[in-house]
Amino acid sequence: MKIGIIGGGISGVAAAFWIDKMLSEEGIDGEITLLEKDNSLGGSIGTVEKEGFTIESGPNGFLNSKPHTLQLFDDADLNDNLLPSNDAARKRFIMRDSKLVKLPEKPGEFLTSDILSFQGKLRVAAELFIPKKKNNKDETVAEFATRRLGKEACEYLISPMVSGVFAGDPYKLSLKSCFPVIADLEETYGGLFKGMLRKKNKKSGPAGPGGVLTSYRGGLINALDDLSNKTKNVEYRLGDGVNRVEKIHDKFHVKTASVNEFDFDHLVVTCPSYVASEFFKDMDNELSASLNEIHYAPAFVVGFGLDEEDVKHDLDGFGYLIPPKENRKILGALFTSSIFPERAPEGKKLVRVIMGGDRNPWIVGKPEEELVLMALEGINDTLGIKGHPEVVQYFKWNMAIPQYYQGHSKIVKSIEKASEGAGDLYIGGNILYGIGINDCTRTSFEIAEKLVQNIKAQQ
């Protein structure tokens, strides 16, 4: 049985690990080949070590409140390498009127906070009395937030959250596709506060994104390398991107850039949708078109290594996000050395700045050196930085994060229908069901289970 996996990010590596493990447990012989166009595993995950600083190119980690990523490392006996964030870094900030305001963690803090005006707080409190939506409209995040919490809360609480997760525009993103748990609170319980209270009373787990941010010792790229080394029947072919996929005699015939050709009985796709759209054109034009409908937002990430004496702000927290109303060129900054003290040498600070997103596509046309200067200017006055950074490391992604716009659920159904029609084709990664590491590992686990069950049924 030959199984192909296209894409060597966390989704592809997790799928390879679990498929290998499950086949072995079932006593099924299988040859697994993972094809990755880059010369290393990682995808959007990458780690650079520079003068004692550990700088991530993409995700910073995952929340330990969801099971699948934890299960992945547990199954691979790599739990000891997990790195929980510092307890002191739980504080998060939002910029309002050019000042950093601590995001309230408790109801009492919300009442005294400057995050919203008195009228804005009253409007949020009135959410308890807002009736449940009566139609099935696929609301945007902004439509939902404004309807239930008010415009001010949408602008200063929800909009920066959307920037922090999707680098997206809440006026375009679908609530039920991007934040299904939040949509379910209203659908099931009639409102946000009602739902959170009921879930708390039932002890049914957190209603929101709880948990501790968790990374991996030495950086997330080490996690992928270690996971790949735990597989027994997987061949990793790096630097070999896929150009074309066809279905010939019930096999997936795959041609790569290096003129290699493979025939697979089962095919798992975890690469970006715009890449998959190109290589599926000859096999299924409708599938290709649906994959191409998903828009991607650009991102520019730059890490600044600083001497602590050159930073006036104590960086006591996770970092801060900036609402679009503040008219800044950056989306926010993470205080990486406060989140994970191991990421900077003693006496040094590491700040990671994020720019771009769906609202700021102009970054694609700017030279990297100009963007670095913008990023540094963006944090200078806020954090009180003097002098020059000791280390600068940047990463530019012209197509970084998929955006689940209104109507995304229709795209999902179209892709699901096409993949089922193709037979033994599995679409994973962050294309359909969520963009976070936890979403990706959950999807990979479900694909592995389904694939192995299909093999058993075909025997």
Ordered list of secondary-structure elements with their pairings:
Elements: E1 2-6, H1 10-26, E2 31-36, E3 47-50, E4 53-56, E5 62-63, H2 67-75, E6 82-84, E7 92-96, E8 99-102, H3 107-112, H4 118-125, H5 141-149, H6 151-166, H7 175-178, H8 180-189, H9 192-202, E9 213-216, H10 220-229, E10 234-238, E11 242-248, E12 251-256, E13 261-264, E14 266-269, H11 273-279, H12 285-292, E15 295-307, E16 319-321, E17 330-334, H13 336-339, E18 348-356, H14 368-383, E19 391-403, H15 408-422, E20 425-427, H16 437-458
Helix pairs in contact: 1-16, 2-16, 5-6, 8-9, 11-12, 12-15
Could you characterize what this model shows?
With 459 residues, this protein is α/β, with parallel strands linked by helices. Among the domains are: 2-46 and 67-74 and 223-294 and 405-458, 3-Layer(bba) Sandwich (FAD/NAD(P)-binding domain), CATH 3.50.50; 104-198, protoporphyrinogen ix oxidase, domain 3. The protein is built from 16 helices and 20 strands. The chain has helices at residues 10-26, 67-75, 107-112, 118-125, 141-149, 151-166, 175-178, 180-189, 192-202, 220-229, 273-279, 285-292, 336-339, 368-383, 408-422, 437-458; strands spanning 2-6, 31-36, 47-50, 53-56, 62-63, 82-84, 92-96, 99-102, 213-216, 234-238, 242-248, 251-256, 261-264, 266-269, 295-307, 319-321, 330-334, 348-356, 391-403, 425-427. A 7-stranded mixed β-sheet has the order 8-7-16-17-18-15-19. It has a 5-stranded parallel β-sheet with strand order 10-2-1-14-20. Pfam families: Amino_oxidase. One of its GO terms (molecular function) is oxygen-dependent protoporphyrinogen oxidase activity.
